[in-house]
Automatic annotation (TrEMBL):
Molecular-function GO term, any one: metal ion binding
Cofactor(s) listed: Mg(2+)
Domain Methyltransferase type: 276-376
Protein name per Swiss-Prot or TrEMBL: Small RNA 2'-O-methyltransferase
Species of origin: Actinoplanes awajinensis subsp. mycoplanecinus
Gene Ontology biological-process entries: regulatory ncRNA-mediated gene silencing; RNA methylation
Enzyme nomenclature, EC number: 2.1.1.386
Entry similarity comment: Belongs to the methyltransferase superfamily. HEN1 family.
Amino acid sequence: MLLTVTTTHRPATDLGYLLVKHPGKVHSFDMPTGTAYVMYPEATDDRCTAALLLDVDPQRLRARADSFELSQYVNDRPYAASSLLASALAKVFRTALRGASKDRPELAAEAIPLEIRVPVLRGSAELVTRLFTPLGWAVTATPIPLEEEVGGGDSRYVDLALAGTLRLADALNHLYVLLPVLDDGKHYWVAPDEIEKLLRSGAGWLAGHPEKVLIARRYLAHRKSYATTALTLLDADQPVSEEEAELPVARKAPLAGQRRDAVLAALAEVGATRVLDLGCGPGALLTALIKDTRFTEIVGADVSSRALDQAARRLRLDQMSERQRNRITLIQTALTYRDARLSGYDAAVLMEVIEHVDLPRLPALEASVFGRAQPGAVVVTTPNVEYNVHYEGLTGMRHSDHRFEWTRAEFAGWAEGVAERYGYTVTIRGVGDLDETTGAPTQLALFRKTETTTEVTA
């Protein structure tokens, strides 16, 4: 798939400084699904064109299987512009996307004449025009005809040409967001951090776009809660932030990232190398665990087979080396029932899990994890309900699936009771920006086993 960027701003070869790619060379970049190349088919003072070519290796491509039985093998992924091309653009032109240029800072801040060409793009000419015209582009979207042998007429693809006078950074961010929006199918699992990516790339233009609802929904893979969060932030004109529970909160760093870091720090504190991620969901914590070589054995457990499939895709298990693959196991199990496979580990993590369990069933989870599996340490995180006053417009719990949310006193009482019943000590700490009155948004309990405990059989 191909994308070209052309300027006639003199000297046009300054485009190379903005893209941080020398016009006299061919640049190559390894991508998860192939190889990206940047080259300059023309480079004069009057006119300069940079071409981004993504050569997709079908054997490295996990195609979507969402339209017909053989779509895994017969599809348009290697040819039509999509999130694959947007990801390549983000990697190859990272500095230009930020609007930074060490050599030409004034030019990076200046609107210059630009021509963009995407020869094969999925989407109707009408939708392409609706998306790009409000951003200051003159749009030419020419439908690509089908061959007469298959009936003729227009295909679902267009040859897109854009012309306008814009900052290069703005142009690239338009493409980064709108290419996957038009394709309407990302090649990777959409996690909550995509909200932050959308708001960062849409800064200055998305909030006022007449199609912002459609853009948010498609960019975020029709995850309603994610789109709602993104649109709320846009309407409130708040700074970019991200929360795995789908709610915004004023803070300097994403709470989901702070929470994962706090869990990893707790695991390091107890010296764990063999770790259980209980209620692992689509694999947010597993991704961090596999990157840390101190963890030699990792088990992700969840009751949902769909979540485990998502985790496998997110981890790219099918692309891992045998050595890496041997470090991680995914198992389906219910945490409220006995499972011998969970016994004998250094530590277990229940990250944002207990609040999804009905309160009458919580003792069964306690008995299963603390009484039967008996890991050397247990890390539990859960929302601090006192902090909810900082979420504007929130009238209930942070997530529709939460069965309860505890105050700091309630969580401490539960944790101390569990520790006493099952032979652990416990320390409690906050995670996230601390408020003097309400505490931190997340509360974390670190349990350490102190004695040999008789296994619970009831």
